[in-house]
Design a protein that fits this description.
The chain has 720 residues and is mostly beta strands. 4% of the residues lie in helices and 57% in strands. The strands form 7 sheets. It has a 22-stranded antiparallel beta barrel. A 5-stranded mixed β-sheet has the order 3-9-10-7-8. The longest helix has 16 residues, at 17-32. The protein is globular, with a radius of gyration of 26 Å. Mean pLDDT is 90; it is low at 1-56.
Length: 720
């Protein structure tokens, strides 16, 4: 399959090169904790330094290798799974400035974003939440604390976003029963390039961004970016301010050995908006732009990511990779989060006066070796590795979150945060994880290949209640595996089938309660089959997938004793997904996808007022049964491109009883771009042109969080 690689060769100075190479190689060996052969003497002169940079190709998305659907760096055509790539070019053309906006244009993905989950929660294939739809940054798993993920969020530093639909425990451990999102940042390049972007728009939007890359001598290259976005918001008191910056330095010691040091920082002050109360189960248009939070509400997220990556090509077909990483997160909420309106009086009762502070630190290391070697004349690629993480988490809060107030729905003084419960250090947890994993791709014939993998995870969890000194813990283990077959109908078309077994946490893994530690991990299995094809001359592609996922061991109420919880529940989903893109000619192109889903509780009981109530046959909350995306572009004249996109999300429910349906919605976006000069581009981005009022997700059956109203932003981009 074609690979998009840009390769540059530069001469490295001989003086001091051997010492530098040996020092760096020793550091790499210590980093991985393994013994490897000494550096060959004939490499001392370092005749050439090779810099490889792999990019997702917009004209060949299925044949470009990715590392998300498999650690074997296979293309989508060679992977027995549903893998999709959203490139930086697509993100820029659509004007998507957040990861959530970009990902929800992919097949089957919808947003469940709310302040309580960091504004990043997603749903796919019938499963939702940070545990079931996992987020990776540069291939590294981020463990959400209390179901909250706040990084990555900005698309400015993104090279591409890869998504994998379906269970991924064989790749990334427990969780990800629905899918995986891997945000891949831009890499240092040796060619000098700088991009500056500035924009303004409705609701006092202001944007500034800078990205620069280039060489620092014959062996070093760099990348640096910064992005700042501000807005007064589309609701009352809806101000927001986000800043991200970071970059990387890459050292190419030789054609065989390289190191990259990455650092990213993100600061978010999102709108302190938790939605609006419903009026007899529907959206009240008069409340659309109101913010019922208190006047001194606060939401703040601070994230840092540091990664040191080493790559050593031991010999032809043998590569060692090691990544040492450290993630640091601090979050703070102080809000009144629950609102319920009495339609007869139009009085809104505000409750859940919640203040929470989270402090999370994750340090880990992943070492793997890839071996490309023929076996009995058959091509074979094998990867084996080990991964370890330690995650410490502390929460301070004012539990049990007392406080309430009553205000008029039609006009009120927002007041201040006032709770009778003091904010104190609540609990601290420590989670240690280690995993062994392996994958293999074996060519049975010239057209038929088998791709399989296995991963063993061991987790040790402990928690200490700081007020009482109470301690408890739990150990978990799981073996996930996948086996698939890929048959190549032609160099640009393949069919596949696969079976996967995985596991999912019964709660946020690093913040489990004492009652949750009594249970084991939930388990899941998936059958999937599909077809993928790229059209000739880069004219487009299309994919088709059918699947069934069954998740077992859900926590459910004992119908004979509603005070007891048992782990015998089951949830399933089955569906069909179709995606494609086509260049129609005359400057017209189209991209589209659709997902039809049947998600159900097969065995699940809830305790309602002390009585066990069956939810069998019901749809899990915040899961749509149909989704679709359409994006059209047209270039009427040279250097001008206009585009329009539709995003459709089917009906969902805001409770497991399915008594509070959220209506389906369709949002229309549009863009217009003018390449004014060789270096300057001016673009207009229009969002929600029809000004549709719709619910993104639900805070409760009586409170929905609404999507943004109509907006416009004018952005100028200069490249030099």
């Amino acid at each position: 399959m074609p690979q998009s690689r840009s390769t540059a060769y530069v001469r490295a100075p001989a003086a001091g090169a051997l010492a530098l190479k040996q020092t760096a190689f020793i550091a790499f060996s210590l980093l991985g904790g393994v013994c490897v052969p000494a550096v060959a003497a004939e490499d001392a002169n370092l005749p050439l330094v090779t810099i490889n940079a792999q990019h997702a190709r917009d004209d060949a998305p299925l044949s470009t290798p990715t590392s998300t659907g498999s650690r074997l760096n296979l293309s989508s055509l060679d992977t027995p799974a549903s893998v999709e790539t959203i490139t930086a070019t697509q993100i820029e053309a659509r004007g998507d400035q957040t990861v959530t906006d970009a990902v929800t244009r992919a097949t089957g993905f919808t947003s469940n974003a709310a302040p309580g989950n960091g504004g990043t929660a997603l749903a796919v294939r019938g499963f939702s939440g940070q545990e079931s739809v996992m987020t990776l940054y540069d291939g590294t798993r981020l463990y959400p604390g209390a179901g909250t993920m706040t990084f990555p969020f900005d698309t400015w530093q993104v090279e591409r976003i890869d998504v994998l639909r379906g269970p991924a425990s064989v790749l990334y451990g427990e969780g990800a029963i629905g899918g995986v999102v891997n945000v891949v940042p831009k890499r240092p390049q040796r060619e000098f390039a700088t991009t500056i972007q500035a924009g303004f728009g409705t609701d006092a939007q202001k944007r500034f961004a800078l990205d620069t890359t280039g060489a620092l001598g014959p062996m070093l290259s760099y990348r640096f970016y910064v992005s700042d976005n501000r807005s007064n918001g589309w609701v009352d008191r809806g101000e927001s301010h986000t800043t991200s910056f970071g970059g990387a330095v890459k050292l190419d010691v030789s054609p065989k050995l390289s190191f990259t040091l990455d650092y990213d920082y993100g600061r978010q002050m999102p709108a302190t908006y938790f939605g609006v109360p419903l009026n007899n189960g529907t959206i009240d248009a008069t409340l659309r732009y109101k913010n019922f939070n208190v006047g001194n509400a606060l939401i703040a997220y601070f994230d840092q990511s540091t990664r040191l990556t080493g790559v050593y090509r031991v010999a032809d077909g043998i590569t060692l990779r090691d990544q040492l990483y450290y993630l640091n997160t601090n979050r703070h909420w102080r809000n009144s989060e629950a609102y319920e309106m009495d339609p007869s009086t139009r009085l809104v009762t505000r409750s859940d006066y919640i203040e929470i502070l989270q402090h999370e630190h994750q340090v880990g290391n992943r070492l793997d070796a890839t071996i490309d070697r023929s076996i009995a004349g058959h091509a074979n690629r094998f990867v084996v590795g080990v991964e370890a993480n330690q995650i410490s988490f502390q929460r301070d809060s004012n539990t049990p979150f007392g406080g309430s107030s009553v205000v008029s729905a039609d006009g009120f003084d927002p007041g201040v945060f006032a709770s009778p419960d003091p904010t104190v250090a609540e609990f601290r947890t420590l989670t240690r994880q280690v995993a062994l994993f392996a994958e293999d791709r074996f060519d049975i014939t010239s057209r038929l290949s088998a791709v399989g993998g296995m991963r063993y995870d061991y987790l040790d969890y402990s928690r200490r209640q700081l007020a009482t000194g109470t301690e408890f813990g739990k150990t978990f283990s799981n073996v996930g595996w996948r086996l698939g077959l890929v048959y190549q109908l032609s160099p640009s078309a393949s069919v596949y089938g696969q079976y996967t077994r995985g596991a999912d946490s019964i709660g946020s893994l690093v913040t489990l309660s004492q009652s949750q530690t009594k249970f084991d991990l939930a388990t899941g299995q998936q059958w999937e089959a599909g077809f993928k094809q790229e059209l000739p001359d880069g004219r487009g592609f299309w994919t088709l997938a059918v699947y069934q996922i069954v998740k077992k061991n859900l926590l459910t109420t004992d119908p004979l004793n509603p005070t007891l919880t048992q782990q015998v529940g089951q949830q399933s989903s089955r569906g069909i997904e179709l995606s494609g893109a086509l260049k129609l000619g005359y400057g017209v192109s189209v991209e589209a996808n659709a997902s039809l889903l049947r998600a159900r509780f097969d065995q699940f009981d809830e305790s309602v007022g002390g009585v066990a109530v069956s939810r069998n046959g019901n749809v899990p909350n915040n899961v749509p049964q149909q989704t679709a995306n359409l994006w059209l572009t047209y270039s009427p004249v040279h250097d001008v491109v206009v585009g329009a996109g539709l995003r459709y999300v089917g009906r969902r429910y805001s409770d497991n009883a399915n008594t509070a349906p959220m209506p389906s919605y369709t949002v229309l976006d549009a863009t217009a771009s003018w390449q004014a000069t060789k270096r300057v581009n001016v673009a207009l981005y229009l969002r929600n042109l029809a000004n549709r009022a719709y619910a993104v997700t639900s805070e409760s059956p009586v409170e929905w969080l609404l999507g943004p109203s109509r907006s416009a932003q004018l952005v100028a981009t200069m490249k030099f």
